Every structure is written in C-alpha cells, then in structure tokens.
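Attaching the record inline, Q. Sequence:
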Amino acid sequence: MRLIAIRVTCAFHTVSHEAVGIIAGIIPPEIMAMELKRVYDRSKSLGRRLSVDERKDERQASLNEWQKRWMWQQQGPIG
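Structure, as predicted:
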C-alpha cells in the first residue's frame, strides 16, 4: 500500500507511511476491514442492506478512527 500511495502522490520514499497515506487519501487496510465488518454485521442484524446514509455513518466512523490514529502518532512518545 505504501508504494502505491507514494506513486499516487509522487512523493519521495522518505515520506512516512502514515503521511503518504493521508496525502493520497488511502484509508489503511485494517480500518477499511473494520468498516466492512461493521457494515456486514449491521446489515445481518437488520436483515437488509444498509441505506446510503447508514453506510456514510460507517465511513465517517472509519475516518474518525483514522484521524484519531494520526493525532496519536503526531503526539509522539510521552516523556
């Protein structure tokens, strides 16, 4: 994923994995997988496909998780 993001952004290889992903707008695979699982579980429990708004809510939750991870990394180690 990092190499793809570097090529999409035309960035140097010295750019961090997290930064190039954000610049390219590529959600990390683990966050995307969690989103797909939430959508699947929710649609299974409701017995129907999710509406566009419900899927947007799940995407927003993924973006919030991505933002939280980015902010945590920017703070660096405490001490």
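The chain is about 75% helix and 0% strand. The chain has a mean pLDDT of 83.

More tomorrow.
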